[in-house]
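Recap from last week: sequence in, structure out.
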Amino acid sequence: MTDRRDISFVRRPAQGPRDQDGLAVLLAAYHLRTQAEKGAAVADVDRLPERYRAEVLDPDGAFADDVVLLALNGDAAVGCLVVTAAVGGRCEVKRLWTVPELRGKGIASGLVTAALSHAADLGVETMCLSVWQWRTDAIALYERLGFTATESWDGRSRLLCLERAV
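Predicted structure tokens:
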């Protein structure tokens, strides 16, 4: 049985063997699930919208200016989170995902906490994120971690924007 003590939170290295770290698998699961939740399910990665397919097929290129954090259970990636490059004292959390069978073990909160620590090290003042309104468990997690609703910077319907001071 896995619990939070079995999980390590690491910054994905800027160089090294990338195709074996599991990030693409996590991103594929994230995007396929999101498409299904939007009512636009697709059968596989090849049918994802281009911008999401590009993240799965080339995470290095998609997140070249960002920091990717991984949650590892031994050598297996069980969660991910992207922290965008800081702009004007703000950075954004994107693509928070944990494998469904390990949810409720503190992996997502560990990733967000690591992201906040990274942002603090950079001198970032505000961390922001957006989350679909139907993801009530994720919203509850973000609120427990001090995020509050803010004016939307994204015009998509049913997307909630949150932020917190770092």
